[in-house]
Amino acid sequence: MTRVRRGLAAIGHALPWAVAIVYFYAAASYLSFGTHVMIWILFAMSLDLALGYAGILTLGHAGFFGLGAYAAGLFAIHLSPDPILGHLAAIGAAVLFGAVSGAMILHTSGVTLLMLTLAIVSVMSEYANALTGGDDGLQGIRLGPIFGIFEFNIFGKTAYVYALIVLFSWFLLAWRIVHSPFGRSLDGIRQNPRRMRAIGTPVWWRLLAIYTISAAMAGSAGALSAHATRFVGLSVLSLLTSGIVTVVLILGGTRRIYGAFLGATIYFVVQDYSAKISPFFWEFVVGFMLIATVLLFEGGLLDLGPAVLRLRDRWRVAREQK
After folding, report:
1. Distance between CA 64 and CA 94 in Å, rounded?
2. Higher pLDDT, 73 or 295
3. Collapsing DSSP states into helix, strand and coil, what is residue 255?
4. How many Cβ atoms are within 10 Å of 305's Cβ, its own excluded?
């Protein structure tokens, strides 16, 4: 039985990456959509580390996403078109801002923390509006080929593979974090920070560490977005962006890294197909789907399989009792 479970677990781990590889060859004309989904998977995964695993309430995660996008765009315009250097610069900017802002706000909790994160991203949005093109956004982003070989072109192949490699790298780091003693301590902090302090855990430092790592991941997602679209608009710093990534995470399931994969995929596939029916119809569909998920599946759509198995077991028990 253990071998069977290990085999099923291995298949489950390999499935998302196998789907991504098959998609590359089977949907060559829709690679831009696939790249967009992977960017949001990374963004949602970054939020899961902060909100899901550490319990840090935030409505300002778009700040790091937008900062990464603007940093990558400005780097490409004014310093170097090298996408790797621009990506690293964006991550560095997100790390610095995450550490500084986290040090200021993580002494608070609850609604106070929530409002502070919202205030920070609002200030960032106004700053971007004043200094980086306003509603016209950041244009004129030009990128050189990766390693001087792989060019970003209209077919989106390079951007897709690049995003997939970046996502996989961050996934490995996130998986290692949540399954380490550090990750276990974050779960304890989320449940009861007072008891964790009582046993000598440096609660504030660990929250700051995961908040900074989460900011780096979100900044990396923002940089991917800027490189893939070669445009950065004010929407990347909006409350709507923070709301969307929260919805994506809730749909897939918090405290489960793969929840970001499922949530982002379902959200944008449903949005794409529903918007073809009506520009506003998709909002109704996504809203209904979110309500149904919250009411029926405590752990998001990843609980769908276990829920079906539980219903099957109950049906068998009821049948045997008859």
Report:
1. 6
2. 73
3. coil
4. 10
**Band of the pLDDT at 25, cuts 50, 70, 90?**
very high
The residues, any chain, with a CB within 8 Å of residue 41's CB and separated by 6 or more, are 167, 260, 261, 264, 265
Q: Would you say 260 and 38 are in contact if contact means Cβ atoms under 8 Å apart?
A: no
174: nearest Cα among 42, 57, 263: 42
- Give φ, ψ of 23 to 5 degrees: -60, -40
Please answer whether residues 17 and 24 qualify as being in contact, where contact means their C-beta atoms are separated by less than 8 angstroms.
no
Tokens of 277: 């029916």
**pTM for the full model?**
0.93
Q: At what angle do helices 2-26 and 257-277 cross, to 10 degrees?
A: 40
Task: Retrieve residue 189's tokens.
Answer: 């902090």
In angstroms, the CA 21 to CA 284 distance is 32
- 129: its two tokens: 């509006």
Dihedral Cα 31, 37, 42, 44, nearest 10 deg: 180
With contact defined as beta carbons under 8 Å apart, do 257 and 48 qualify?
yes
Give 264-277 pLDDT, tens digit per residue. 999 999 998 888 88
Chain position carrying tokens 């709507």: 240
